[in-house]
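User: Show me an example of a complex going from sequences to structure tokens.

Assistant: Sure. Here are the input components:
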Amino acid sequence: MGDNINTNALIDLPYAQLLREHPLAAGFFEQVGLEPPAPQQSTGELIATLDEFQLADCGMDAPALQQAFVAYVGRMESIARAQAQHTREIRILGGVDKDGAPEELDLCVHAGEMVCIVGPTGSGKSRLLEDIEYLAQGDTPTRRRILVDGAVPSQSMRFAVENKVTAQLSQSMVFVMDLAANDFLALHAASRMMDPQCIPSVVERTLACANDLAGEPFTPSTRLTSLSGGQSRALMIADLAFISSSPIVLIDEIENAGVDRRRALDLLCGQDKIVFVVTHDPLIALMGCKRLVIGNGAVRSIIEPDDAERTQLRALCTIDEELSRIRHAIRSGERVAATFDAAEGGGKEGGP
Amino acid sequence: MVSSSMKVITFAGPPSSGKTAVALELAERFAQHGRVGAIKFDCLSSHDGDDYEAAGIPVLTGVSGVICPDHFFASNIKACMDWGVRHGFDYLITESAGLCNRCSPHLRGAVAVCVIDMLSGIDAPQKIGPMLKLADFIVITKGDLVSQAEREVFALRVIKANPRARVFFINGLTGQGCHLLAKELEAAASKQEAIPERLRFSMPGAVCSYCFGETKVSDKFAVGNIKYMDIED
């Protein structure tokens, strides 16, 4: 941390010069609850003027405060530098199954591709997602190894908390912060060190997209905690697509209700994400470019969709559209017409 | 200075943040290649010691009761460490519950961990004082329950509050993430040179009539080391 920054110089820079050369440093004073130095005063000089009560309010003694200042500037600047990351490919090398038998697996997944993970409960689907999240290097129970862009990921890439390579979405996630949707998105964009001038348009785009994915629209000022399940999921997905910088998205089930799953996944792939989805939803499972079948803790086989499956996917899409239409009709208090013929098993034209 | 190779690791964090779950998970990992003991500090009665015993880890429980929990910690920790040395532990884990946010039970020279949970609110990292600001490692729990976006915002706020710390997301229930944290803690603890002797940060003082049981709330009854608010009309 703090690479390329001369510690002594930083603490001795007059505030006006500090702001010019290290604008992110300004946040430090707000953080510790101090008035910033005068334009010609250095941070070191400011800290020297503090009495023990002021230091107590900062929660640190003077040497710790100096170290925190230098560490703050270094870390914020390294976060800002590391924003643009592009991952073209992830490669998964097999480990062992629950009995210790080798897993025959060497799978490359590229940006914009979606891989589905299927198998019974307890077979090891979530474990595979965990291995990818952890960028495992033979050091998890499965002993799998994950390569990013053909190389062993560095320790700092594996264990970064900021700028993490993987982002996650699961059925059990909720929003807990009591903020309006637009304020929260702006906060998230700012915490990704996005250019402040770009933030309003990114927020607008993300909200429009979330509204598009969610069946029922919500306003920018809706509080996160009052969004419905479907709206929350739609907003999380739009945020993953436009604000989160993580190139790999791990999804553990995505619910049917209130969000257009198909367009959500198309959106993520369209943003050049690498998407892994654990699912038993036939529509999603058939959408993947590959389907990993998990059993006894290992990938048992890899199924690539053939013509028959692609035909079936088109049929399922028609049924899905018909179902959403009926769902919408019921929500609007309408009576549902008989558009399905049980014997035929397909949807007919003409809605309720 | 007491000469012993026992490594001390202090765990602190707000109540119900998952300290015991995380500390236990780590204690069990340390126990695979060393002797581990634990000290559990609590304000009211505590059953968390039972969890350590169930895991086969010797534990001392200290309940501060009518005494300020932080001062209770500071006045007892040395004797607790001596107990650990007498038992020949390789690792001594201390866990202190719900200290006031002005306080920190972290010791100079010993590895300090702060456990904070994602559900505690967006301003929590800024509100928690020296316990978080002076920690070497910050463990964020319950991240599996909230959106990715909130995790990222929260993590950045934690880093801003303590830019020197290593930050980990840990699932206290499944132990996910503990594998690496255990390795990092061991590496950091191996640099400990002697049994710690000092706090990292002074504790707030009182010594006033309320310390001795006064219950009437008025400046007429407040006697001793008292601080009054400036109230303007």
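The lines above are the inputs; the final block is the predicted structure for all two components together. Chain A is about 40% helix and 15% strand.
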